[in-house]
Write a structure and sequence with these properties.
Helices cover 33% and strands 13% of the residues. With 332 residues, the chain is an alpha/beta fold. The radius of gyration is 19 Å and the shape is globular.
Amino acid sequence: MALPRRTLGADGPTVGAIGLGCMSFSPTYGGFDGVNPTDVIHRALDLGVTLLDTADVYGPLTSELAVGKAIAGRRDEVVVATKFGIMASPAGSQPPVVIGTPEYVRTSVDGSLSRLGVDYIDLYYQHRADLNVPIEETVGAMAELVAAGKVRYLGLSEASVDTIRRAAAVHPIAALQSEWSLWSRDIEAEVVPTCRELGIGIVPFSPLGRGMLTGRITSLDEFAEDDMRRNHPRFRDGALDANLQAVDVVRGVATAHGVAPGQVALAWSLARGPDVVPIPGTKRITYLEENVGSADVDLSPDDLDRLDSVTAVGERWVDPTWIYRTTPPQTT
């Protein structure tokens, strides 16, 4: 069965129902030594995955460079999504900062275009709202990029309802990227209904719970020393054991269907609605193929009820202030 296609937003891009998160091609999850990103991305394209999601801060820069190298010669098969707005300090000497000034928008896009080796970016996200810059100013500058032909569609990431509404009043927003999975469901109460009211597609990142919902993680010892999950609240301080028990529910549904737990978690995401395109990340072709196979998993209402009982212990970010940042209103 071919990977189904879905459209992001009322008039946004049409993509494969499952995308590929390319943060894996950076040091975030322990690096990718011994992995050829081009092989992984080419296999994704062969399977019908068309949405490739990256960001200038992943690495920084290494993920965009890897994606750019991989899509050379296959540009017409790809919907390239990247993000700006988080600036990492050299060698992690300081916490990253959020920048949303119009000047930074214009500078950032040119860097991404160069690294990706493309003439335009299909979907350009503001990675986080800048608390010091009204969203109207940032999205206004992003809209200029659309007018200039450098960008086709605009997106937001981890934005609050207020920010989403104010941004959409300036220029159509095709997609909101936010964490959404069986164990991260806080956007369901207000953010998801707002997106649907405004005709904005939803792109869940970490739909596999940062790997937990695959059922393959059993202890911190499985992570490389520089894997960010070693410091993540849901993987330490006693939370890991509790979260492993929650995964047993997913495993039970998977066993009944004869599929992998991760496939059940992704099938749950796809069942949230036709405007949802999850972007699981991986640097392994085997896991990529498994993820794409989740589109064939048909969950029953009873399955969905069982899965809805899954909850997570611990904050979903080390620093919760990175979630749903609301920019200040424009002053007169």
